[in-house]
């Protein structure tokens, strides 16, 4: 009987466990992707552009044998499975709250056809690294130690030749992959991901530990969008990591990715609510002035050069350096006294690599409302941060060329005064 391989956040053919699981069936495999209108509506144009480009790349890798359809997965997947007489539907596990609800609905609609999950987008799937009493870790450092001790599997030996692919022309309901328009700074798809990773390993990994916090340097891997869409698996990447300082610093970042996924898996309410409910009582600004300042932040017109540079980089490219993400997030929460959810939502609209676990808990790390030892009273000073991590101002000048002109706005707030106000509000709830 044939099997159905349903792609989601795994738009690749190498190191893909569900492909191997589907190929063990005594028959052909139909490769499919379901364009879910809910996800298309919630993704910004650049994230859609990456998705569509990656789907076209996957289609080409399969010599045209990728079936793309549109609709609610709980309707389209059972229809396809029954139309081809599938023995099972194979997927990579999705641990986000949305993904879990979707897969539960699909599994119920499939009735007697099993929905079988193999692997996940992570080195260690959420829920597997726990404390000795079986509970989830709340702090990264002990999680990291246990995570390293747990270890991970070698890459799965899969590829385009792993299955006999069913011709999608025999199945009804196909749609063409849309064209989102616009340009991406870096190309999408599995071939592009593997090429980008090799370039970083050859040219950037050795200096990563010392230079990764410098937005003025091309010192990061730029693999985040590829990891978001699964055009490469982190298992494929870690086999290239040795014992150098740069390699170990990079491994730690992959561990943070697994940690935040594990936190979201254990506490799904934290996707939009404070993981630490103490901060539910924090006072935030609202009204017309708060909205005006929020719009200035989004537009990169706050009068703080490093903040404005980051927000303009985000608006123009769909990406922002991680150090600058922390700076602009701190500014929104601590200087403008706005809810972290406002910033998190804007990031998800703009970022190509917008990942629910990383984004939401990265924001809560800065806001001090989430897990780990990130106290609210740590406030990033945008001026000193800029001087430290963009010492000659080249990053700022690239994105804020009018800095020395009369057209550049004056600071919209007094950082010293707003820092005191942020600490006063924190004291009120503790």
Quick description:
This protein is mostly helical.
Mean pLDDT: 95
| Oligomeric status | single chain
Largest sheet: 5 strands, parallel
The radius of gyration computed from the alpha-carbon positions, rounded to a whole number of angstroms, is 23 Å
The general outline is: globular
List low-confidence stretches.
none
Describe how the helices and strands are arranged.
Layout: E1 3-7, H1 17-23, E2 29-35, H2 37-42, H3 45-61, E3 66-70, H4 73-84, E4 89-91, H5 97-110, E5 115-117, H6 140-150, H7 190-203, H8 208-211, H9 224-229, H10 234-238, H11 245-266, H12 287-299, H13 305-317, H14 322-335, H15 340-350, H16 356-367, H17 382-389, H18 394-399, H19 415-429
Parallel strand pairs: 1-2, 1-4, 2-3, 4-5
Helix pairs in contact: 4-5, 6-11, 11-16, 13-14, 14-16, 15-16
What does this molecule look like?
- The protein is mainly alpha-helical and 430 residues long.
- It is 49% helix and 5% strand.
- It has helices spanning 17-23, 37-42, 45-61, 73-84, 97-110, 140-150, 190-203, 208-211, 224-229, 234-238, 245-266, 287-299, 305-317, 322-335, 340-350, 356-367, 382-389, 394-399, 415-429; strands at 3-7, 29-35, 66-70, 89-91, 115-117.
- The longest helix has 22 residues, at 245-266.
- The model has no long low-confidence stretch (mean pLDDT 95).
